[in-house]
Amino acid sequence: MNATLPERQFSEKWHIKGILSGLLFVLIFIGSGYNTGATANFSWDQFWDLLIRMMHPDWTFVSAIITPIAETIQMALVGTLLGTIIAIPFSLLAARNIVKNTYLRGIIRFFLILVRALPDLLLAAVFVAIVGIGPMAGVGALTIFSFGMISKLFYEAIETIDDGPIEALTSVGANGIQKIVFAVIPQVMNQFLSYFLYTLEINVRASTVLGYLGAGGVGLYLDQTLSLFRYDRTAVVILAILVVVIIVDGVSNRLREALA
Amino acid sequence: MQKIQRNPWQKYGPWIIAILVVLLFVWAFSGIPLSTVKPQAMQVTKSIIHGLFHPDWSYVYSGDGEDLVSALIETLAIAFLGTFISAILTLPFAFLAARTKKGLFTPRSTIGKLILTIIRVFPEIVLAIMFIKAVGPGAYAGVLAVSIHSIGMLGKLFSEAIENIDRGPNEAIVAAGGSALDGLTLATIPAVMPEFMNYTLYRFEIAVRSAAILGIVGAGGIGAPLIFALQTRQWPKVGIILLGIIVMVTVIDFLSGQLRKRLV
Question: Which ipTM value was assigned to this complex?
Fold first, then answer.
């Protein structure tokens, strides 16, 4: 018996890869610290002052923000619905088992990647420039944002369906639209609704700050109270956002569990 | 043949739900006044699209630190530093929130989860403004905002990873006479490390997007030049900045996706 032990290569023996990637990580980390000036003084008394003033919320402000809170939810609902309506045809066109043409699918998917690359607040800034200050800008931003997100979730859901019903309909001579209506949609309906609710949750969260840029909703009051140094009122706005987001998340989670 | 009896809820339930949903959306649409759209909206849209196809290439690199490349690098630096600081800050919260003991009443985990929810919901923009008060406008405030805000989401993902690991190795170490600390360092951490790194990279992708908008409140990055260009109607500059953000985000998503594939 003269079993030879497997020889380890030089680079494996000394963990060259691990050491180099670790070193690279540390270098980027230090470089980032240098670039962002993360060594500046942290003025604790300023920060404590702010926190202490936020700890004493001005409860009389609650009545003033009920309408903007409602507007926030309305914006999120409308934006999600419009985004979903636009997303459905795109998600069908991007699904591997519906569209066999690789190039068409590739172009659609590339377009969706580009749309998803834009953050929600950035879209809001652009829409405020286009349609002007008001909830329409928020609806526009949320529509585009949820369109990008829902299309991806939907086409991935469509790709996981069972091909049997489609083949059955093909064999009896159904056309493309009939196949989608009777074979695809019944299989993905529950997932679609679940993703719709999930996007709605994210949009409610996003819509609460969109107003900071003038795109409607309660975020406007964040901007106003902060620029007037009324931190006691800012605290009320933040608490209201917290309550709304937690309620919407809770309801949506329960509904999604019921759907699954 | 007997017909199957359905109770009233099965019969009318779907209709009631449908009517409620329709009413909800009618209410939602009633709150959005269409008339507020500026009359020149189409013209501005055309200008932005024209700007996207005729970007101001001279802004890409000028060498004085006020150009697109340095703003994008600053954005990436904010996201990178913020995310990895946050990954370290998250660890105690994640262990606090993880439900490792069975039972109905788990106060430690419930408190941890509550803290994480509050952090997650607290708007990042407000955090950035608060930190600007403390450290002055600039990228440092952005780093702090990202690193605190990310705890919310990372803590949730990390604690779920801790809940899902196999408890066997930990019990084996304790059975062989190891302390709780031995169990943590020799069994738990090696088991959760790949998932932690995976989630941190995923969070980094999100942080790049949020760092790109933090500049809107003056916390460094590409947001400030963008909002300035939008307000002064320099559409070619808006075009090049939007292109820059799209390219940066797409490249980072791709690289991070490749890395994550190799981790798992």
Answer: 0.80
